[in-house]
Write a structure and sequence with these properties.
The chain is α/β, with parallel strands linked by helices and 319 residues long. It contains eleven helices and eleven strands. Helix 2 links the parallel strand 1 and strand 2. Helix 2 packs across helix 9 and helix 4 runs parallel beside helix 11.
């Protein structure tokens, strides 16, 4: 009887950790979004958060933490308890360029455990309807004739939209004034109001304004046109093939999050992206859902490393 009791206690003790892991998630999960509501990362976060929540059986609550090109949000995520109840949606700006632009940040790439890639985004250069130039070639010519006079809005230094601007400036070899906002939506609002000449944005947040004729898209910095913007030429078609700046969004957790939890989140991510409704929604937004091989921690980790190396060259000087 004594041996039976000891065996039973031993079995219970061994089962407890497994039961705790199986119970995840037992309460709502917070997804930190490094920018203001309405921008590309926010829109993608809402889509994937809703569907991952269904897969996990818990609500994923998006919390917008803007400022400093994502540094504030990433600092908070890096310091969050590594229990799977705080996750982060990051992009090429927040998780790549920020290390070059803000070398004194209190976190490193190793402060985060990548869960997997969500989607790739198509960069767009859009201008106000009453701007003198109508095409990309005319816009570049105007910029060269008027150095420093064009204002381009973006979602904050270090954001993926800021990187679109920097890619454009490098490719076109022009001098423009870059105007920083706390997110893509505020920048787009100022473009709609005529307060800036253009914005560097991604299709998910600017497409509807282009479709409605409220702003003019002049180029798509991607290899092929989008179904939702069939009349918007690629940068190569518009005469500036060097203007390429495909973006991405991925999910991260604090570094010490148990592997079992990271795996559970990855399963939910994969199941969500495989959902035809999610694929359809991403396509409507002008985003390309991640492929099977891209939804791994290793792929995202390598992507972050390659982006950091690239932006050490592109961002040699700050604005």
């Amino acid at each position: 009887m004594k041996h039976f009791a000891l065996a039973l206690l031993s079995a219970v003790g061994l089962a407890a950790p497994a039961a705790a892991q199986q119970a995840y998630p037992a309460r709502p999960i917070t997804m930190i979004v490094p920018f203001a509501a309405g921008g590309t990362s926010d829109v993608i976060a809402r889509v994937i958060g809703e569907h991952m929540g269904k897969q996990l059986g818990q609500t994923i609550v998006n919390e917008n933490v803007g400022g400093a090109g994502g540094v504030i949000a990433l600092t908070r995520a890096a310091n969050a308890q590594a229990d799977g109840y705080t996750i982060l949606i990051g992009n090429t700006g927040t998780n790549g360029a920020s290390y070059v632009l803000s070398p004194d940040v209190k976190y490193t790439p190793d402060s985060f455990a990548p869960v997997g890639l969500i989607a790739k985004t198509a960069p767009v250069l859009a201008i106000r309807n009453d701007f003198p130039a109508k095409t990309l070639a005319e816009f570049v010519a105007y910029a060269k004739a008027n150095p420093g006079k064009i204002n381009l809005g973006h979602a904050g230094v270090g954001s993926s939209n800021y990187l679109i601007c920097k890619n454009f400036v490098a490719a076109a070899q022009v001098q423009v004034t870059l105007v920083s906002y706390r997110g893509a939506a505020p920048a787009l609002n100022d473009l709609l109001g005529g307060h800036v000449d253009g914005v560097c944005d991604a299709a998910p947040s600017v497409a509807s304004s282009i479709q409605a004729g409220r702003v003019r898209g002049v180029a798509l910095a991607a290899r092929q046109r989008l179904e939702i913007l069939p009349d918007l030429p690629t940068s190569a078609e518009a005469g500036l093939p060097a203007f390429q700046a495909e973006g991405w969004n991925a999910i991260f957790t604090p570094a010490k999050t148990p592997q079992a939890i990271v795996d559970r989140l990855n399963q939910a991510l994969r199941a969500s992206i495989a959902d035809p409704a999610v694929k359809k929604r991403f396509n409507e937004l002008g985003s390309t859902p991640a492929e099977e091989a891209e939804m791994t921690s290793e792929h995202v980790r390598n992507l972050v490393a390659s982006d950091i190396a690239k932006y050490k060259v592109l961002l040699a000087t700050k604005d």
